Automatic annotation (TrEMBL):
Its main location: membrane. One of its GO terms (biological process) is transition metal ion transport. Coiled coil: none annotated. This is Membrane protein, putative. The chain crosses the membrane at residues 12-33, 53-70, 82-109, 115-134, 146-167, 187-212. It comes from the Bacteria. Keywords: Cell membrane, Membrane, Transmembrane, Transmembrane helix, Transport.
Amino acid sequence: MMQFLEQLVDSISLNSSLAGLIATVLLVFWYWLIWPQTQFSELVASRKKQSRVFIATFAINALWLINASVSPQIHVHFLGLVVLMLMFGWRLASIIALLPVLFFAIFVLKQPLDFALYAIFAVCVPLFVCFIFYSQSFKFLPHHLFIYIFFGAFINGFLSMLFHIVSWALWLNLSTDYDWLYLADNYLILIPLLGFPEALLNGMAITILVVYRPEWLYDYCDRTYLWKQ
């Protein structure tokens, strides 16, 4: 056990970069802009909600740590961000997802100081895009249970993976020696292979929650999506 811990510590790099510092500043500014004061106060006051956050965080963290490494800095794993968003709202979900990012940066990337960079491309960008898509779906599409699950969870799950991979690939192309052809052949090609299972994972999870734990969902209401009266 001690030998494993020593090897783990030795493999972790603490080299910082200007990009990492800029990303940290941007991340702090972003969270200052979106900080959900009311929701956070409710979370602190509610033990039931704290339990749900713990369960969700544990599940997402386990999901992220089950990953496959294609090459240095190119790792593939499921996200589960849409479930977080539909359970807690996109602002609080953005905060909850920071713990999986931290574990991923330490134990997978082995570059803790790249935490902010990965948080931007693996959490902030996908979650914000999913929130925009979800809100526009609610605005323009009929309020039906099928619409909520299919557009809010299935399609959004695919979009979360799509924007994560594309944004991270763009960053790798700008900041490393990986050219666009290599990224397209070895990373972007995985979008369908990961996107559809991600959509299925989020869609099934939300379907189960709608049936058995609708009160766990952030803004789901039977009167809106089912009974209409």
